[in-house]
Amino acid sequence: MKYLYYPGCSAGGTGKAYDESVVEVFKALDSGLVELDDWNCCGATAYMAVDEAKAFALAARNLALAEDQYPDEDEIHIVAPCSACYLGLLKAKRYTEADPKIGGQIRRALKAADLEYKGKCEVRNPLDIFVNDIGLDKLKELAVRPLEGLKVACYYGCQIVRPYSEFDEPSNPVTMDKILKAMGAEIVEWPCKTRCCGGMLTWSTGAGKELNYILLKEAWKAGADVIATACPLCQFNLECFQDKIRAKYDFNEEMPVAYYTQLMGLALGIDESKLGMKRLFVPPKIPTLTG
Amino acid sequence: MDKWGGQLALEQMELDPVFAERMTRKAWGENLRRCIQCGTCTGTCPLSEYMDYGPRKIISMVRAGNKKDVLECKTIWLCASCYECAVECPKEIKITDVMYALKQQALLEGKSPKKLPVPVLDREFFNIVKKRGRNHEMWLIAITILKTNWLIGLGLATMGIKLMAQGRLPIFDEAIKVGTGKKGDLKKIMDACDEIEREEASA
């Protein structure tokens, strides 16, 4: 079995700190990631709204390329940290395998470019890998700099657990809670773990910003020092519109929003500069680091 | 007012049974007919209160064949694809997929609200990926703002500069080569999709 890394389009841009911290954490866990060659867009939300067949074909090209990169492997696990990428690839895999008509069309489209998808790929999210492949005991053992005294609100967003709940609950997921607890953090209870961040709507609509106001306020009310996210779009929405939210709503705090992999990395003893901490608008204050 | 007074007179709406039939087929919608109008979708939807119609009404309107109102509404563009409704639906209707199908149809027929950024963004996202295989975040937002409401751009300028300073909004974003004609060429795959669609349409 091989892990193959699918960074997704935001990894080189707004989600750069996610990419950096995921890669570093896997390195620290002795499971170095190799990147999928020549990968393309996963066909996520915005693309799916225009053309469904092409969205599936885009995702399927990535799966076929993965099989091409490791022709001798029986099982290839594509590691997709971004929620939208994870679902885009997983949904295409499910529909291709379960729906003969769609499956036939996609196989035909791939064949036009000399590609074939044999079905040897699993689409995996790092949350799943950390808990079920690496294991919480090992994580705990490796946490040389535990996040003692740090209160974290774990925010999963939507598409990691919905519609497919491959490794966690659709409305009350716990994998990130368990991981960060193993890293020594205190997990706060809050009611918005999978409540919508507005996705692609937030930058252009007031409705989207109101959704983020609700999330920020609830996390703050729960006493969180930081919101931990698992998706580049969630992170961007929650972090980058706080000035606009403060201007409009009864919310006056600066809430740090970090990738859970950044927090993991800190606990695993990885240097801050390698984890993209400086790429955050409001870096979290880690009690064990600042003393 | 008698007890039927609240009902919209059917002759006032132009109903299109072909649209109803087609959407039911396209949107994995065999289950769409089984909708019991319980409202779980609208109840669970985090964006329903901002919509002109909630998802429950949209399903009812699709089944009735109320094509014009469905394709021109804002509701479908406010669906953020969080799949809350689809997971909770007691009749297992893939409501998110229904919304996708309606968005696709609205774009195809040019019926989406012109100044709403979301449908414009979706179309531009598609175009960017067609050319370079991957998205380009800065270009996507810039072109959407230029085509819809540049005032939004003013509000985003400070944030954009901050993101650039943090290396989170690169001008030169990595892409792949499209149209190489070699094995794995994305263009060949997309062309094949077009061909399949043409065959479907003529069948």
Task: Please give a structural write-up.
The complex is a heterodimer of chains A (291) and B (203). By secondary structure, chain A is α/β, with parallel strands linked by helices. Chain A has 2 domains: 2-124, Glutathione S-transferase Yfyf (Class Pi), Chain A, domain 2 (Up-down Bundle), CATH 1.20.1050.140; 143-290, 3-Layer(aba) Sandwich (Rossmann fold), CATH 3.40.50.11810. Chain A is 45% helix and 10% strand. Chain A is built from 13 helices and 8 strands. In chain A, the strands form 2 sheets. Chain A has a 4-stranded parallel sheet with strand order 2-1-3-4. In chain A, helix 1 (16-28) runs parallel beside helix 12 and helix 9 packs across helix 11 (242-248). Chain A is globular. Chain A starts with a strand and ends with a helix. By secondary structure, chain B is mainly alpha-helical. Chain B folds into 2 domains: 10-108, Alpha-helical ferredoxin (Fumarate Reductase Iron-sulfur Protein, Chain B, domain 2, Orthogonal Bundle); 117-202, no CATH class. Helix content of chain B is 56%, strand content 0%. Chain B contains 11 helices and no strands. The longest helix of chain B is centred in the last third of the chain and has 17 residues, at 186-202. Chain B is globular. In chain B, 40% of the residues are buried. Classes of the chains: A alpha/beta (291), B mainly alpha (203). The interface between A and B is large, with 63 and 62 residues.
Number of strands of chain B: 0
The CATH architecture name of the largest domain in chain A reads 3-Layer(aba) Sandwich
Q: Give the total of domains of chain A.
A: 2
Count of discrete structural domains of chain B:
2
Shape type of chain A: globular
Assembly context of the chains: heterodimer
What is the helix content of chain A? 40-55%
**Shape verdict of chain B:** globular
Instruction: Estimate the strand proportion of chain B.
Output: under 5%
**Low-confidence runs of at least 5 consecutive residues of chain B:** none
